Amino acid sequence: xxVKKFFILVSATPVLALLAYGLSRDLGSFPSPLIGREAPxxxxxxxxxxxxxxxxxxxxxxxxxxxxxxxIPACYNEAPALEAAWQRYRERxxxxxxxxxxxxxxxxxxxxxxxxxxxxxxxxxxxxxxxAYGVRxxxxxxxxxxxxxxxxxxVGEISFDVLMQQIERLLNGAGGLS
Length: 178
Prior knowledge:
By secondary structure, the protein is of the alpha/beta class.
């Protein structure tokens, strides 16, 4: 082996090791720097023609789910749990909103019809909401407390049990940001 090839190999090894380490990490293991801070304000045009404004829901627990129709199987698996949790908590000062991420409108509408989602959903045009919340992939679910602070971020498919646990914690004023 020539000296030049040896130096190239030695130089590339740390870079490859760092890349391998990064690829082996779970994105959910990196905490959101937004936890405990005021949730970024946004307004979203909804698929039903209405508008959702986060500021209008101050004083309520807000659940934001970022999803896409191409997110298979995670978004498909969690969709029934989201609708069930919405139905359970909608009369208890809990608001759900779905933020459709980098999707085609027709596919997104088919997804919503398939899972009979009745909570507000709208496309994240220009990825503004996703960027503001630091979304790294779909699905991700964010929980905002009554004071408008981001209390919890769940990366990946969410279950009905986790939804209930986080919502109950916020409804009971337990705080304890996570």
